[in-house]
Design a protein that fits this description.
Distance between the termini: 22 Å
Number of domains: 1
Shape: globular
Structural class: mainly alpha
Order of helices and strands: HHHHHHHHHHHHHHHH
Number of strands: 0
Length: about 400
C-alpha cells in the first residue's frame, strides 16, 4: 500500500459517525427553532406546560445532551489517524485538508447558522494533529487531563454564577427579556437577509466562546479519538465483555447525571444556579453517554447484531458533512422567513420531535440512495477536490 494511502474503512466507525450526526441534530434543532438559550430554559419562547413538551425536553437532556457532538469530535480525532498513513511522521500534511474544512465551516456559520462546529474543530485539529506521534498512554492522559481541566473551569464558573441568586432569572441575566426575544423573532420571520447580521454576530461570539472556553474539551476528545483508534477500541478489537461493561456503566452514569441536572433545573423553575448546575451535569454526563454509545456500537458489531440498522447509519456516516449541511438548509427553509416559511419560535417541542424523526428517516434513506450512485456526499466531494487541487472521481 502506498505510504499516503488511506487505511481501510471500518463500517462500525461509519455507523457510529452517522449516529453522531443524527444525535447532534436532536440538540441543534432547538437552536434552529428558538433563541439559543431556550435549549437550557425551554419555557422561554414556547409552551412548556404540556407533559409532551416536558417529556421531549427531558429525554433530549437525559439521553442526548451534548453526546452527539462529543462523539463526532472524537471520531474526527480517529480520522486524523486513519486519513493519512504517514501522519505520525509528517502531521502537517493534513493542514490543507483542515484549512478547506475551516473555509467550509466559515461559510456555513456566517451565511446560514451560528451554531456551526466545524470552524473551532478545524482550528483545534490543526494543533492536535501533531499529537499523532505521541505514545498511546500520553494520548489517553493528555486527553483526559484537558477534558478534566475544562470541566473544573466550568465548575468554578457555576459556583461563581450561583452568587447571582434567584432575584433575577437566568434569561434576564443574559439579556433575553421579552422585548429582545420579540426583536429576534421579527428578524428571523422577515427573511434570510434580514437576520444575516444577527446570525453573523452570534456566530462570532459562539466561535470565540468555544475556542476560549471549550477548546480543552474539544482537544481532549480529539486526542481520545486518536487513542481509541490506535488502541483498537474503535475497530472492535476489545473483548465483548469489556464493551458490554463499559456500555452498561457509562450509559447508566451518563443518563443519571444528565437527567438529574435537567430535573433539578426544571424543579427549580430554571433558577440561575440550577441552570448552571445543569450545564455542569450535561458536560460530564454527555461524555459518559458518548463513551457508552461508542461501546454499545462496538458490542453490536462484535456480536453481529442490528446489521440492517448499522448499515443504514453507516450510509449517513460516509457523508457526514453533507448531512450536517442538509440539516441546516432544511431548518433554515423552515424557520427563517423569505424564501423560507418563517416558523421561528412557532413550533413547540412535540412538533420539533416529529420534524426530527422525519429528517432522520429522510437522511437515512437519502444517504443510501445517494451512495448507490456516487462515491462521496456532495460536500465531501467538494472538500476532497479542493484538498487534492483537482476534481475527484465521483460516479461509481
Amino acid at each position: 500500500m502506498p505510504e499516503n494511502a488511506p487505511l481501510p474503512r471500518h463500517d462500525s466507525l461509519d455507523a457510529l459517525r452517522g449516529f453522531a450526526v443524527l444525535l447532534m441534530f436532536a440538540v441543534n434543532i432547538q437552536l434552529f427553532a428558538f433563541v439559543w438559550i431556550a435549549a437550557d430554559i425551554p419555557g422561554l419562547q414556547s409552551d412548556f406546560e404540556g407533559w409532551g413538551n416536558r417529556a421531549v425536553w427531558l429525554v433530549t437532556q437525559g439521553l442526548v445532551s451534548q453526546s452527539g457532538t462529543a462523539l463526532f469530535i472524537t471520531l474526527f480525532g480517529a480520522a486524523l489517524v486513519l486519513n493519512v498513513r504517514a501522519a505520525r511522521q509528517n502531521p502537517t500534511r493534513q493542514w490543507p485538508r483542515l484549512a478547506w474544512l475551516l473555509l467550509l465551516g466559515l461559510l456555513h456559520a456566517y451565511l446560514f447558522w451560528y451554531g456551526d462546529i466545524l470552524v473551532p474543530l478545524a482550528l483545534v485539529a490543526m494543533i492536535v494533529v501533531a499529537a499523532n506521534g505521541m505514545t498511546l498512554r500520553s494520548l489517553w492522559g493528555l486527553g483526559l487531563g484537558l477534558i478534566g481541566f475544562t470541566g473544573l473551569m466550568l465548575l468554578a464558573g457555576s459556583a461563581i454564577g450561583a452568587l447571582i441568586g434567584d432575584g433575577i432569572t437566568a434569561a434576564g441575566a443574559m439579556g433575553f427579556n421579552p422585548e429582545a426575544i420579540a426583536g429576534i423573532e421579527t428578524l428571523y420571520r422577515t427573511g434570510f437577509v434580514a437576520r444575516l447580521g444577527y446570525n453573523m454576530s452570534i456566530a462570532l461570539q459562539s466561535e470565540m466562546m468555544q475556542i476560549v472556553f471549550m477548546s480543552g474539551r474539544m482537544a481532549g476528545c480529539l486526542l481520545l479519538g486518536m487513542a481509541a483508534l490506535r488502541s483498537g477500541f474503535l475497530t472492535g478489537q476489545w473483548s465483548v465483555r469489556h464493551y458490554g461493561w463499559i456500555a452498561a456503566i457509562a450509559l447508566g452514569i451518563g443518563a443519571a447525571l444528565c437527567l438529574a441536572g435537567a430535573w433539578n433545573a426544571m424543579a427549580s423553575g430554571f433558577s440561575p444556579a440550577a441552570v448552571l448546575q445543569n450545564r455542569v451535569a450535561q458536560y460530564f454526563g454527555s461524555l459518559a453517554l458518548a463513551l457508552g454509545y461508542a461501546a454499545g456500537f462496538m458490542l453490536a458489531a462484535k456480536l453481529d447484531r442490528a446489521r440492517a440498522a448499522r448499515s443504514a447509519l453507516a450510509a449517513v456516516g460516509r457523508m457526514p458533512i453533507s448531512n450536517y449541511f442538509a440539516q441546516t438548509l432544511l431548518m433554515t427553509l423552515l424557520f427563517v422567513g423569505f424564501p423560507g416559511l418563517g416558523q421561528f419560535g412557532q413550533i413547540d417541542r412535540t412538533g420539533l420531535a416529529l420534524i426530527l424523526v422525519s429528517v432522520w428517516v429522510a437522511q437515512v434513506f437519502g444517504s443510501i440512495f445517494w451512495l448507490q450512485r456516487y462515491r462521496y456526499g456532495p460536500v465531501e466531494w467538494v472538500w476532497r477536490s479542493l484538498t487534492a487541487g483537482r476534481p475527484q472521481a465521483w460516479l461509481r
